Every structure is written in structure tokens, then in C-alpha cells.
Amino acid sequence: MRTITVAVPLLFVGGCDVFKLGVANHAGPVAESQWHLLVIVGIVLFFVAAPVLVLTPIIAWHYRLGKKGNVYKPKWNFSWPLEGLIWIPPTGIVIGLGFVLWTYTQALDPYRPIASAQPALEVQAVGLDWKWLFIYPDQTVAVVNQMAIPVGRPVHISLTSGTVMQSLLIPQLAGQIYAMAGMTTQLNLAASRPGTFRGENTQFNGDGFQNQKFDVLALSPADFDAWLASVRASARPLDPAAIDRLLQKSVPPEPILFSSVPPDLFQTFIARAQEPSR
Fold it and tell me: Using an 8 Å Cβ cutoff, are 193 and 219 in contact?
């Protein structure tokens, strides 16, 4: 009994990570808009479900078997007020939600660039077993299982997979986008405040799936430059031998920094998947 008494509160406390690490604790304009949409839809669904939840027990109690004297109207078959209640509110809800969802769908298109006076930071993400490789083509560096971005600057991510289909999700910054071998998808996001945010693969891809997570470091511009300097100082080039090691199935215990990358490495991963099997 004592064990149950202690365990039950822990179940509720454990769920707090959903709010701490999820879209409710948004840290960027994309996730903030997603949260607003969820709130709007939630409020509408509450007004849809509440009458059903309230009226069902009331009607069941009113027309209970033991109650006598209810009015019996065998020839009743139509009521304008009742028909209006049945059709007008649901029609209005559907039209209103359709307009809201259409507007947000256009605004939250993952391929849609984020308006900013600053140019977008280009990042290329490659999903591997069971790790993420993030390439910075303009800075000619790469990192496994860590992505750093400057606060306030838009980020454009190009994604592909070096293995099976995967899905990248950073709940506090942006929604889910798939990465597929031989193909390229896109995701645009930005961070509005400094912090460390969790990213992960949400598409099952084998034994190490549950450990394929990474940190997104949202840094000030000065700290981002310092981070780049630390990556370059690692003196570990992403050479063919290192690429072969990354292609092997593994879960790195910590981020791996690469001070230099071959040109067009991202396109090399795409071309590799498009080669005919032998």
C-alpha cells in the first residue's frame, strides 16, 4: 500500500516533462504559432464535447425507466428550433475551424522561410543509425548529435537519411519533418531565447531508436562564434574513414565534433542512396 501511495504522485510529476520539453514551453516563433493553434482547437473541441458530456447523463436521468408521467408524443416528428440547434452550430464550427486550419497550414509550412533581416543559417541534417549528423556547409564543420544555432537568426535545415526513413522533431522550436534516403526535405525554424532544447527521431528505425536524441543549443551570436571555434579546434576531419565509422550502427555516448568536412558531403549521401543495388 505504501508503494502505491508513493508511486501514484510520481506518475503525475513524471508527466511534467511533456510541458517542460514540449510545444507548451515553446522557444521559437514556429513552435509558438503551433501552440496557439493547439489552444484554439482545444477550446473549440471543449465547446463541442462539453454539451455531449453534460447532456448525456441529464437525458439518461430524465428518461430513466423508473420515472412516470413523461409526455408521450407519438406524432411529433419535426422542430425548427431543434433542427437549427443540430445543424447551425456544427456548421459554424466546421467553417470556422476550416478557415483557422487553412491559415495556420499556410503559415506553418515547414518549407516556408522565416522572414528576417538576417540571412538564414544553412544546416544539413543526415539521419543515421542511431545518430544525427549536422553539417554546416558555409562554416565547413560538422557535429554528431548536437546542433548549435544563434538566437534570433532563422535556420534552414535540409534533411536526408543515410539509412531507413527517419523523422526529426524539436518540439520547442518546430514540428516534425521526415528524412528519406535519396531525397531532400526542408525545415525552417528559429530560436527566440537562449537554451538547450531536445531533438529526437520519432520514426522507429531499430534497436537504438529510443536513444537517437540530440541537443539543440540556442546561443547568442558571440557564443555561437565561440562554439564554431571550439569545433574547428577539435582537429578531427570528417574523412572517409570517419564517414565509414558513422555509417555503422551505434549510439555515440557524447557529441562528436568534426573540424572540417568534404565539399558536397550532403549530396554524396543522397547520391549514395540513389545508386542501384547490386
Answer: no
Q: Which three cell numbers stand for residue 88?
A: 447551425
- Element spanning 166, H or E: strand 166-170
Q: Would you say 112 and 229 are in contact if contact means Cβ atoms under 8 Å apart?
A: no
Rounded CA separation 238/180 (Å): 22
Q: pLDDT tens for residues 97-110?
A: 999 999 999 999 99
Residue with cell 548529435: 145
- Cα–Cα distance between 114 and 153 in angstroms, integer? 9
| Residue in this structure with the C-alpha cell 514551453, named with its chain if needed | 25
List the Cα angle 14/19/49 in 5-degree steps.
Answer: 100
DSSP codes of every residue in 111-136? TSPPP-SSPPEEEEEEEETTEEEEEE
Question: How far is residue 170 from each of residues 64, 214, 269, measured CA to CA in Å?
Answer: 51, 9, 23
Alpha carbon distance 148, 152 (integer Å): 13
Q: Is-contact 126 161, C-beta < 8 A?
A: yes
Q: Which 8-state DSSP code applies to residue 27?
A: -
Rounded Cα–Cα distance for residues 178 and 104 (Å):
20
Tell me phi and psi for residue 136, to 5 degrees.
Answer: -110, 95
Mean pLDDT of the 93-120 span: 94
* pTM of the predicted structure, to 2 decimals: 0.85
Cell numbers that stand for 21 in this block: 520539453
Round the CA-based radius of gyration of the chain to a whole number and report it.
26
What pLDDT does residue 17 have? Answer: 67
Residue 102 is placed in which grid cell?
487553412
Identify whether the C-beta of residue 231 lies closer than 8 Å to the C-beta of residue 141.
Answer: yes
C-alpha grid cell for residue 22? 514540449
Cα(243)–Cα(264) distance, integer angstroms? 13
The candidate with the shortest Cα–Cα distance to 165, out of 215, 105, 212, 214, is 212
Q: Is the peptide bond before 76 cis (omega within 30 degrees of 0)?
A: no
